[in-house]
Predict the 3D structure of the following.
Amino acid sequence: MMALLRHTKQTIAKFKHISRILISADTCICNEVSRRNTRQFSTTPDISLLRHLKTRIKLNGPVTVAEYMREVLTNPLMGYYMNRDVFGSEGDFITSPEISQMFGELIGIWCLNEWMQDGHTNKLQIVELGPGRGTLADDMLRVFSKFKEAKDSVSLHLVEVSPTLSAMQEAKLTGQDVKSMPVKPDKLNDNNKHYRECISKYGHPVYWYKTLSDVPRGLSCFVAHEFLDALPIHKFQKTDRGWCEVLVDSDDSSTSELRFVLSNGPTTALKVFLQVDPDDSRDHIEVCPESGIVIQELSSRINQDGGYALIADYGHNGEKTDTFRGFKKHQLHDVLKDPGSADLTADVDFAYLKKVTENLVKTYGPITQQTFLENMGIGVRLQVLLQKASTENWKDLISGYKMLTDKDKMGERFKFLAILKQKDSNYIPAGFVPPNVMNSMESQKIKK
Ligand code: SAH
Protein backbone atom coordinates (compact mmCIF):
# COMPACT_ATOMS: atom_id res chain seq x y z
CA MET A 1 0.00 0.00 0.00
CA MET A 2 2.86 2.39 0.85
CA ALA A 3 4.51 1.63 -2.51
CA LEU A 4 1.23 2.29 -4.22
CA LEU A 5 0.85 5.59 -2.41
CA ARG A 6 4.42 6.60 -3.20
CA HIS A 7 4.09 5.71 -6.84
CA THR A 8 0.69 7.33 -7.21
CA LYS A 9 2.02 10.40 -5.44
CA GLN A 10 4.77 10.75 -8.05
CA THR A 11 2.26 10.26 -10.85
CA ILE A 12 -0.04 12.87 -9.39
CA ALA A 13 2.80 15.31 -8.81
CA LYS A 14 3.77 15.08 -12.49
CA PHE A 15 0.16 15.23 -13.56
CA LYS A 16 -0.47 18.27 -11.41
CA HIS A 17 2.59 19.91 -12.91
CA ILE A 18 1.22 19.45 -16.42
CA SER A 19 -2.30 20.49 -15.54
CA ARG A 20 -0.99 23.55 -13.68
CA ILE A 21 0.87 24.68 -16.78
CA LEU A 22 -2.26 24.28 -18.82
CA ILE A 23 -4.56 25.86 -16.31
CA SER A 24 -2.33 28.89 -15.87
CA ALA A 25 -1.70 29.17 -19.62
CA ASP A 26 -3.70 31.79 -21.38
CA THR A 27 -5.99 29.28 -23.00
CA CYS A 28 -9.16 30.98 -22.01
CA ILE A 29 -10.91 31.01 -25.27
CA CYS A 30 -14.10 32.68 -24.34
CA ASN A 31 -15.34 32.70 -27.88
CA GLU A 32 -14.99 28.91 -27.59
CA VAL A 33 -18.23 29.09 -25.64
CA SER A 34 -20.24 30.48 -28.48
CA ARG A 35 -18.54 28.38 -31.14
CA ARG A 36 -20.22 25.27 -29.66
CA ASN A 37 -23.23 26.26 -31.64
CA THR A 38 -24.79 24.68 -34.62
CA ARG A 39 -24.74 24.52 -38.39
CA GLN A 40 -27.42 24.05 -40.94
CA PHE A 41 -27.89 20.61 -42.45
CA SER A 42 -30.43 18.50 -44.21
CA THR A 43 -32.64 16.09 -42.27
CA THR A 44 -34.82 14.79 -45.06
CA PRO A 45 -35.65 11.13 -44.36
CA ASP A 46 -34.02 8.96 -46.97
CA ILE A 47 -36.80 6.89 -48.44
CA SER A 48 -34.43 5.14 -50.84
CA LEU A 49 -32.52 3.56 -47.95
CA LEU A 50 -35.77 1.94 -46.84
CA ARG A 51 -36.37 0.75 -50.42
CA HIS A 52 -32.82 -0.60 -50.59
CA LEU A 53 -33.28 -2.51 -47.32
CA LYS A 54 -36.65 -3.90 -48.36
CA THR A 55 -35.27 -5.10 -51.69
CA ARG A 56 -32.41 -6.79 -49.90
CA ILE A 57 -34.81 -8.50 -47.48
CA LYS A 58 -37.04 -9.59 -50.36
CA LEU A 59 -34.10 -11.19 -52.14
CA ASN A 60 -32.22 -12.75 -49.20
CA GLY A 61 -34.64 -12.86 -46.28
CA PRO A 62 -34.50 -10.93 -42.95
CA VAL A 63 -31.24 -9.18 -42.09
CA THR A 64 -29.47 -9.19 -38.73
CA VAL A 65 -29.75 -6.07 -36.56
CA ALA A 66 -25.99 -5.61 -37.15
CA GLU A 67 -26.45 -5.56 -40.94
CA TYR A 68 -29.39 -3.18 -40.53
CA MET A 69 -27.43 -0.82 -38.26
CA ARG A 70 -24.38 -0.84 -40.56
CA GLU A 71 -26.49 0.01 -43.61
CA VAL A 72 -28.49 2.70 -41.83
CA LEU A 73 -25.48 4.46 -40.31
CA THR A 74 -22.68 4.01 -42.84
CA ASN A 75 -24.09 2.98 -46.22
CA PRO A 76 -21.66 4.87 -48.50
CA LEU A 77 -24.41 6.74 -50.38
CA MET A 78 -27.28 7.04 -47.95
CA GLY A 79 -25.98 6.27 -44.44
CA TYR A 80 -26.98 8.55 -41.57
CA TYR A 81 -23.40 9.77 -40.91
CA MET A 82 -22.30 10.02 -44.53
CA ASN A 83 -23.81 13.24 -45.86
CA ARG A 84 -24.61 15.63 -43.07
CA ASP A 85 -23.82 17.25 -39.75
CA VAL A 86 -25.91 15.43 -37.17
CA PHE A 87 -24.61 17.08 -34.00
CA GLY A 88 -25.55 20.03 -31.82
CA SER A 89 -28.76 21.60 -30.61
CA GLU A 90 -30.20 21.69 -34.13
CA GLY A 91 -29.07 18.14 -34.90
CA ASP A 92 -30.20 14.87 -33.36
CA PHE A 93 -27.88 14.64 -30.38
CA ILE A 94 -25.20 16.62 -28.58
CA THR A 95 -21.92 15.20 -27.33
CA SER A 96 -19.65 16.27 -24.44
CA PRO A 97 -16.91 17.94 -26.57
CA GLU A 98 -19.64 20.08 -28.19
CA ILE A 99 -20.90 21.13 -24.77
CA SER A 100 -17.67 22.48 -23.30
CA GLN A 101 -14.04 23.00 -24.33
CA MET A 102 -13.05 21.68 -20.87
CA PHE A 103 -13.87 18.12 -21.97
CA GLY A 104 -11.34 17.98 -24.83
CA GLU A 105 -8.75 19.93 -22.87
CA LEU A 106 -8.80 17.45 -19.99
CA ILE A 107 -8.55 14.50 -22.37
CA GLY A 108 -5.60 16.29 -24.01
CA ILE A 109 -3.95 16.64 -20.60
CA TRP A 110 -4.57 12.96 -19.91
CA CYS A 111 -2.76 11.93 -23.13
CA LEU A 112 0.07 14.36 -22.50
CA ASN A 113 0.48 13.13 -18.95
CA GLU A 114 0.79 9.48 -20.04
CA TRP A 115 3.33 10.44 -22.70
CA MET A 116 5.32 12.50 -20.16
CA GLN A 117 5.31 9.52 -17.79
CA ASP A 118 6.95 7.53 -20.59
CA GLY A 119 9.73 10.11 -20.84
CA HIS A 120 8.24 11.75 -23.99
CA THR A 121 11.27 10.72 -26.04
CA ASN A 122 9.31 9.06 -28.86
CA LYS A 123 7.02 10.77 -31.30
CA LEU A 124 3.38 10.36 -30.36
CA GLN A 125 0.43 9.61 -32.63
CA ILE A 126 -2.93 10.74 -31.33
CA VAL A 127 -5.45 8.39 -32.92
CA GLU A 128 -9.07 9.45 -32.56
CA LEU A 129 -11.81 7.06 -33.61
CA GLY A 130 -15.04 8.67 -34.84
CA PRO A 131 -14.13 12.36 -34.44
CA GLY A 132 -17.57 13.85 -35.24
CA ARG A 133 -17.13 17.55 -35.91
CA GLY A 134 -13.44 17.44 -34.89
CA THR A 135 -14.06 19.50 -31.76
CA LEU A 136 -12.46 17.08 -29.29
CA ALA A 137 -9.34 16.76 -31.50
CA ASP A 138 -9.14 20.55 -31.90
CA ASP A 139 -9.34 21.12 -28.13
CA MET A 140 -6.65 18.48 -27.58
CA LEU A 141 -4.32 20.01 -30.17
CA ARG A 142 -4.70 23.42 -28.51
CA VAL A 143 -3.45 21.82 -25.28
CA PHE A 144 -0.50 20.18 -27.09
CA SER A 145 0.40 23.49 -28.74
CA LYS A 146 1.16 24.92 -25.26
CA PHE A 147 3.96 22.40 -24.72
CA LYS A 148 7.01 22.66 -26.93
CA GLU A 149 7.77 18.91 -26.81
CA ALA A 150 4.24 18.02 -27.83
CA LYS A 151 4.06 20.69 -30.49
CA ASP A 152 6.93 19.16 -32.41
CA SER A 153 6.35 15.46 -31.71
CA VAL A 154 2.62 14.94 -32.02
CA SER A 155 0.68 13.96 -35.14
CA LEU A 156 -3.08 13.42 -35.35
CA HIS A 157 -4.66 10.38 -37.04
CA LEU A 158 -8.43 10.36 -37.47
CA VAL A 159 -10.45 7.23 -38.22
CA GLU A 160 -13.57 8.54 -39.94
CA VAL A 161 -15.87 6.78 -42.39
CA SER A 162 -17.85 9.85 -43.45
CA PRO A 163 -16.47 12.07 -46.25
CA THR A 164 -18.74 14.94 -45.18
CA LEU A 165 -17.64 14.80 -41.56
CA SER A 166 -13.96 14.50 -42.58
CA ALA A 167 -14.35 17.76 -44.53
CA MET A 168 -15.95 19.36 -41.50
CA GLN A 169 -13.12 18.08 -39.28
CA GLU A 170 -10.51 19.53 -41.63
CA ALA A 171 -12.30 22.90 -41.55
CA LYS A 172 -12.31 22.85 -37.75
CA LEU A 173 -8.67 21.78 -37.40
CA THR A 174 -7.35 24.28 -39.93
CA GLY A 175 -9.64 27.11 -38.89
CA GLN A 176 -11.14 27.44 -42.37
CA ASP A 177 -14.72 28.03 -43.38
CA VAL A 178 -16.43 24.66 -43.85
CA LYS A 179 -18.22 25.97 -46.98
CA SER A 180 -14.85 26.34 -48.70
CA MET A 181 -13.81 22.80 -47.75
CA PRO A 182 -14.28 20.26 -50.55
CA VAL A 183 -15.73 16.87 -49.67
CA LYS A 184 -12.87 15.26 -51.54
CA PRO A 185 -13.23 11.90 -53.23
CA ASP A 186 -11.29 9.13 -51.54
CA LYS A 187 -7.69 9.21 -52.65
CA LEU A 188 -5.64 6.36 -51.29
CA ASN A 189 -1.93 6.81 -51.59
CA ASP A 190 0.00 3.65 -52.58
CA ASN A 191 2.26 3.58 -49.55
CA ASN A 192 0.08 5.27 -47.00
CA LYS A 193 -3.48 4.40 -46.43
CA HIS A 194 -4.81 7.82 -45.55
CA TYR A 195 -7.44 9.43 -47.77
CA ARG A 196 -7.03 13.01 -46.61
CA GLU A 197 -4.34 15.11 -44.94
CA CYS A 198 -3.71 18.66 -43.73
CA ILE A 199 -1.64 20.68 -41.26
CA SER A 200 -3.61 21.88 -38.25
CA LYS A 201 -3.74 25.56 -37.33
CA TYR A 202 -1.28 24.69 -34.53
CA GLY A 203 1.16 23.05 -36.95
CA HIS A 204 0.45 19.35 -36.29
CA PRO A 205 0.19 17.00 -39.29
CA VAL A 206 -3.28 15.40 -39.56
CA TYR A 207 -4.29 12.29 -41.55
CA TRP A 208 -7.62 10.53 -42.15
CA TYR A 209 -8.26 6.77 -42.51
CA LYS A 210 -11.31 4.59 -43.05
CA THR A 211 -10.32 1.97 -40.48
CA LEU A 212 -7.94 1.58 -37.55
CA SER A 213 -5.94 -1.08 -39.39
CA ASP A 214 -4.90 1.60 -41.95
CA VAL A 215 -3.29 3.81 -39.26
CA PRO A 216 0.54 3.41 -39.21
CA ARG A 217 2.10 1.55 -36.29
CA GLY A 218 3.93 3.49 -33.59
CA LEU A 219 3.53 4.84 -30.07
CA SER A 220 -0.08 6.01 -29.97
CA CYS A 221 -2.66 7.45 -27.66
CA PHE A 222 -6.07 6.20 -28.81
CA VAL A 223 -9.20 8.17 -27.99
CA ALA A 224 -12.72 6.94 -28.73
CA HIS A 225 -15.58 9.09 -27.52
CA GLU A 226 -19.10 8.00 -28.46
CA PHE A 227 -17.63 5.85 -31.24
CA LEU A 228 -18.24 2.28 -30.07
CA ASP A 229 -21.95 2.90 -29.44
CA ALA A 230 -22.34 3.55 -33.19
CA LEU A 231 -20.92 0.16 -34.19
CA PRO A 232 -23.35 -2.60 -35.24
CA ILE A 233 -24.76 -4.96 -32.62
CA HIS A 234 -26.29 -8.41 -32.82
CA LYS A 235 -29.33 -8.99 -30.60
CA PHE A 236 -30.13 -12.39 -29.11
CA GLN A 237 -33.35 -13.45 -27.35
CA LYS A 238 -33.91 -16.45 -25.07
CA THR A 239 -37.14 -18.26 -25.98
CA ASP A 240 -38.91 -21.54 -25.16
CA ARG A 241 -36.99 -23.08 -28.05
CA GLY A 242 -33.61 -21.78 -26.87
CA TRP A 243 -31.63 -18.70 -27.90
CA CYS A 244 -32.65 -17.04 -31.19
CA GLU A 245 -31.30 -14.02 -33.06
CA VAL A 246 -33.47 -10.92 -33.50
CA LEU A 247 -33.72 -10.05 -37.20
CA VAL A 248 -35.24 -7.21 -39.23
CA ASP A 249 -37.93 -8.19 -41.72
CA SER A 250 -40.23 -6.37 -44.12
CA ASP A 251 -43.71 -5.55 -42.86
CA ASP A 252 -46.03 -4.21 -45.48
CA SER A 253 -48.97 -4.11 -43.08
CA SER A 254 -47.55 -1.41 -40.77
CA THR A 255 -46.57 2.22 -41.28
CA SER A 256 -42.98 1.60 -40.22
CA GLU A 257 -42.68 -0.96 -43.07
CA LEU A 258 -40.12 -2.97 -41.10
CA ARG A 259 -40.47 -5.23 -38.07
CA PHE A 260 -38.41 -7.38 -35.73
CA VAL A 261 -38.71 -11.16 -36.04
CA LEU A 262 -36.90 -14.06 -34.39
CA SER A 263 -34.73 -16.50 -36.28
CA ASN A 264 -36.06 -20.05 -36.57
CA GLY A 265 -33.02 -21.51 -34.91
CA PRO A 266 -29.45 -20.56 -34.03
CA THR A 267 -27.92 -18.32 -36.72
CA THR A 268 -24.22 -18.26 -37.64
CA ALA A 269 -23.74 -15.04 -35.63
CA LEU A 270 -25.42 -16.65 -32.62
CA LYS A 271 -23.12 -19.67 -32.78
CA VAL A 272 -20.02 -17.49 -33.12
CA PHE A 273 -20.73 -14.52 -30.85
CA LEU A 274 -23.15 -15.53 -28.09
CA GLN A 275 -21.34 -16.75 -25.01
CA VAL A 276 -23.60 -16.81 -21.97
CA ASP A 277 -21.93 -17.18 -18.57
CA PRO A 278 -23.69 -19.74 -16.35
CA ASP A 279 -24.53 -17.03 -13.78
CA ASP A 280 -25.91 -14.59 -16.39
CA SER A 281 -29.70 -14.52 -15.92
CA ARG A 282 -30.48 -12.20 -18.82
CA ASP A 283 -32.95 -13.34 -21.47
CA HIS A 284 -31.85 -10.71 -23.99
CA ILE A 285 -28.21 -10.02 -24.85
CA GLU A 286 -26.58 -7.56 -27.26
CA VAL A 287 -23.12 -8.27 -28.66
CA CYS A 288 -21.02 -5.81 -30.68
CA PRO A 289 -18.26 -7.89 -32.31
CA GLU A 290 -16.81 -4.86 -34.16
CA SER A 291 -16.15 -3.09 -30.88
CA GLY A 292 -14.31 -6.22 -29.71
CA ILE A 293 -12.20 -6.21 -32.90
CA VAL A 294 -11.33 -2.50 -32.52
CA ILE A 295 -10.39 -2.86 -28.86
CA GLN A 296 -8.38 -6.01 -29.50
CA GLU A 297 -6.49 -4.32 -32.35
CA LEU A 298 -5.61 -1.22 -30.35
CA SER A 299 -4.70 -3.36 -27.33
CA SER A 300 -2.33 -5.50 -29.34
CA ARG A 301 -0.76 -2.33 -30.81
CA ILE A 302 -0.33 -0.95 -27.27
CA ASN A 303 1.16 -4.26 -26.20
CA GLN A 304 3.71 -4.21 -29.04
CA ASP A 305 4.38 -0.51 -29.72
CA GLY A 306 3.51 0.98 -26.33
CA GLY A 307 0.78 3.54 -25.83
CA TYR A 308 -2.46 4.33 -24.08
CA ALA A 309 -6.18 4.43 -24.81
CA LEU A 310 -9.12 6.26 -23.35
CA ILE A 311 -12.55 4.90 -24.23
CA ALA A 312 -15.52 7.04 -23.21
CA ASP A 313 -19.12 6.12 -23.92
CA TYR A 314 -22.39 5.32 -22.28
CA GLY A 315 -22.40 1.76 -21.23
CA HIS A 316 -22.73 -0.99 -18.66
CA ASN A 317 -20.81 -3.86 -17.18
CA GLY A 318 -22.53 -6.74 -18.92
CA GLU A 319 -25.85 -6.47 -17.06
CA LYS A 320 -28.11 -4.56 -19.48
CA THR A 321 -30.47 -6.15 -21.98
CA ASP A 322 -32.21 -4.09 -24.69
CA THR A 323 -30.37 -0.80 -25.18
CA PHE A 324 -30.85 -0.35 -28.95
CA ARG A 325 -32.23 3.19 -29.47
CA GLY A 326 -32.90 5.76 -32.16
CA PHE A 327 -32.52 9.52 -31.65
CA LYS A 328 -33.91 12.27 -33.81
CA LYS A 329 -33.98 15.92 -32.81
CA HIS A 330 -32.96 14.93 -29.25
CA GLN A 331 -36.02 12.67 -28.87
CA LEU A 332 -36.27 8.89 -28.83
CA HIS A 333 -37.17 7.63 -32.29
CA ASP A 334 -38.44 4.22 -33.45
CA VAL A 335 -35.29 2.43 -34.66
CA LEU A 336 -37.14 0.91 -37.63
CA LYS A 337 -38.87 4.09 -38.80
CA ASP A 338 -37.45 6.16 -41.70
CA PRO A 339 -34.04 4.43 -41.60
CA GLY A 340 -31.21 6.87 -42.25
CA SER A 341 -33.06 9.84 -40.76
CA ALA A 342 -32.14 9.18 -37.10
CA ASP A 343 -29.11 8.09 -35.12
CA LEU A 344 -28.99 4.45 -34.01
CA THR A 345 -27.04 3.53 -30.92
CA ALA A 346 -26.55 0.79 -28.32
CA ASP A 347 -24.87 0.97 -24.90
CA VAL A 348 -21.28 -0.24 -24.81
CA ASP A 349 -20.67 -3.46 -22.87
CA PHE A 350 -17.46 -2.60 -20.96
CA ALA A 351 -17.24 -6.09 -19.43
CA TYR A 352 -17.02 -7.52 -22.95
CA LEU A 353 -14.33 -4.98 -23.92
CA LYS A 354 -12.28 -5.85 -20.86
CA LYS A 355 -12.58 -9.55 -21.64
CA VAL A 356 -11.15 -9.14 -25.16
CA THR A 357 -8.09 -7.26 -23.84
CA GLU A 358 -7.14 -9.97 -21.32
CA ASN A 359 -3.45 -10.91 -21.35
CA LEU A 360 -2.60 -8.07 -23.74
CA VAL A 361 -2.82 -4.89 -21.67
CA LYS A 362 -3.97 -3.51 -18.35
CA THR A 363 -7.37 -1.82 -18.07
CA TYR A 364 -8.58 0.75 -15.53
CA GLY A 365 -12.25 1.46 -14.87
CA PRO A 366 -14.81 1.90 -16.16
CA ILE A 367 -15.40 4.90 -13.92
CA THR A 368 -18.07 7.53 -14.32
CA GLN A 369 -17.50 10.66 -16.38
CA GLN A 370 -18.10 12.71 -13.25
CA THR A 371 -15.31 10.90 -11.37
CA PHE A 372 -12.90 11.12 -14.30
CA LEU A 373 -13.47 14.83 -14.94
CA GLU A 374 -13.40 15.76 -11.24
CA ASN A 375 -10.17 13.77 -10.74
CA MET A 376 -8.69 15.55 -13.77
CA GLY A 377 -9.40 18.94 -12.22
CA ILE A 378 -12.44 20.20 -14.13
CA GLY A 379 -13.44 22.32 -11.10
CA VAL A 380 -10.15 24.23 -11.18
CA ARG A 381 -10.30 24.63 -14.95
CA LEU A 382 -13.82 26.04 -14.65
CA GLN A 383 -12.62 28.61 -12.09
CA VAL A 384 -9.83 29.78 -14.43
CA LEU A 385 -12.19 30.08 -17.38
CA LEU A 386 -14.75 31.96 -15.29
CA GLN A 387 -12.11 34.43 -14.14
CA LYS A 388 -11.14 35.18 -17.73
CA ALA A 389 -14.59 35.04 -19.33
CA SER A 390 -16.99 37.94 -19.76
CA THR A 391 -20.03 37.74 -17.50
CA GLU A 392 -22.35 36.87 -20.39
CA ASN A 393 -20.33 33.67 -20.91
CA TRP A 394 -20.49 32.57 -17.28
CA LYS A 395 -23.90 30.98 -17.68
CA ASP A 396 -22.73 28.80 -20.59
CA LEU A 397 -19.55 27.76 -18.78
CA ILE A 398 -21.40 26.77 -15.62
CA SER A 399 -24.22 25.00 -17.42
CA GLY A 400 -21.62 23.13 -19.54
CA TYR A 401 -19.80 22.05 -16.38
CA LYS A 402 -23.06 20.84 -14.82
CA MET A 403 -24.17 19.04 -17.95
CA LEU A 404 -20.86 17.13 -18.11
CA THR A 405 -20.60 16.25 -14.43
CA ASP A 406 -24.07 16.15 -12.81
CA LYS A 407 -25.15 12.64 -11.92
CA ASP A 408 -28.58 13.06 -13.47
CA LYS A 409 -27.15 14.55 -16.68
CA MET A 410 -24.04 13.08 -18.35
CA GLY A 411 -21.96 12.57 -15.19
CA GLU A 412 -23.04 9.04 -14.37
CA ARG A 413 -24.32 7.53 -17.62
CA PHE A 414 -21.04 8.06 -19.42
CA LYS A 415 -18.10 5.90 -18.41
CA PHE A 416 -14.33 6.06 -18.97
CA LEU A 417 -12.09 3.04 -19.51
CA ALA A 418 -8.31 3.41 -19.79
CA ILE A 419 -6.05 0.85 -21.47
CA LEU A 420 -2.30 0.90 -20.87
CA LYS A 421 0.65 -1.31 -21.53
CA GLN A 422 1.38 -2.98 -18.23
CA LYS A 423 4.29 -0.99 -16.75
CA ASP A 424 4.39 -1.29 -13.03
CA SER A 425 1.68 -3.05 -11.09
CA ASN A 426 1.21 0.00 -8.85
CA TYR A 427 0.76 2.50 -11.64
CA ILE A 428 -2.62 4.24 -11.89
CA PRO A 429 -3.26 6.67 -14.74
CA ALA A 430 -4.42 10.20 -13.97
CA GLY A 431 -8.18 10.53 -13.63
CA PHE A 432 -8.42 6.94 -12.33
CA VAL A 433 -6.78 7.57 -8.98
CA PRO A 434 -9.48 6.77 -6.43
CA PRO A 435 -10.46 9.83 -4.40
CA ASN A 436 -9.69 8.02 -1.11
CA VAL A 437 -6.08 7.45 -2.22
CA MET A 438 -5.86 11.07 -3.33
CA ASN A 439 -7.31 12.23 0.01
CA SER A 440 -4.97 10.10 2.07
CA MET A 441 -2.03 11.50 0.12
CA GLU A 442 -3.26 15.02 0.61
CA SER A 443 -3.60 14.45 4.36
CA GLN A 444 -0.10 12.95 4.50
CA LYS A 445 1.17 16.10 2.82
CA ILE A 446 -0.61 18.29 5.37
CA LYS A 447 0.88 16.28 8.26
CA LYS A 448 4.34 16.87 6.83
N1 SAH B 1 -16.58 11.59 -31.07
C1 SAH B 1 -17.50 12.58 -31.60
C2 SAH B 1 -18.60 12.01 -32.50
C3 SAH B 1 -19.28 10.73 -32.15
S1 SAH B 1 -20.49 10.25 -33.35
C4 SAH B 1 -18.06 13.40 -30.46
O1 SAH B 1 -17.97 12.98 -29.34
O2 SAH B 1 -18.60 14.47 -30.72
C5 SAH B 1 -19.73 8.89 -34.17
C6 SAH B 1 -18.58 9.24 -35.10
O3 SAH B 1 -18.04 8.01 -35.58
C7 SAH B 1 -18.93 10.03 -36.36
O4 SAH B 1 -17.83 10.85 -36.69
C8 SAH B 1 -19.14 8.93 -37.41
O5 SAH B 1 -19.04 9.37 -38.73
C9 SAH B 1 -18.03 7.98 -37.02
N2 SAH B 1 -18.27 6.58 -37.39
C10 SAH B 1 -19.38 5.86 -37.17
N3 SAH B 1 -19.19 4.59 -37.58
C11 SAH B 1 -17.93 4.51 -38.02
C12 SAH B 1 -17.14 3.44 -38.57
N4 SAH B 1 -17.64 2.23 -38.70
N5 SAH B 1 -15.86 3.71 -38.89
C13 SAH B 1 -15.33 4.95 -38.72
N6 SAH B 1 -16.04 6.00 -38.24
C14 SAH B 1 -17.32 5.78 -37.90
